[in-house]
Amino acid sequence: MGPASSSKETIGKLVEAGADIFRINLSHCSHIDAKQIVEDLQNYLEESKVAAEVGIWIDMNGPKVRTGKLPNNEPVYVESGADFFFVNDISLIGDNTRIATTYSKELLDIGDKIFVDDVNVSFTVVERLENSVKTIADNSGYVGTNKGINFPSHVIDELPAFSEIDKRDLDFALELGVDFVSLSCIRSIDDIDEARLLLGNSKSKLLAKIENEKSMENFESILKRADGIVIDRGYRSRG
Fold it and tell me: In 3-state terms, what secondary structure has residue 194?
């Protein structure tokens, strides 16, 4: 669900068209907006008397790196083949040549790929600098503020599976009584086990999102622990 599809009228049209689950991404949606979507869906189903069963899926951030700030929070356009820098200074206000990240440190090597915003734009690392990495844009596209960054060849083990924000988001999801919750960038069954502890006796089903090489290596064990798997085809389709 996004801004263009979150009105009660649009929700009704989607249900009539056969939608049987609504995904709400809390990385890009406030608790207030998410609650309104759930209430509008519930009210529509009650008022319309339709026989549809529609699930609610809350998608949480998980151990994901994100882009920093841009002027007026407006996306910038990056041309294919252009130099672009990812800078380890979250206070930096970026532009169409560079952007801050919440993490990169010594993680990346020359030749590694960086995917931004569900692979909207892909970059190849060409040089490591003191406080940044220099890349070449593989394709043209927009880079925005607070967008997910994925390093498909690397996993950042030191990031917690659940940040304090994720824990608050999970509490919120459970208060709403949603049908499914998912955590981005699952790495191993340890992440699943931590999620299980936080879920407690909740009836909400746990979905594991597969978005990196380590989760693919641990796919079988993750599948046994989770209630379902979500394959991020964007991240898995490039390499």
Answer: helix
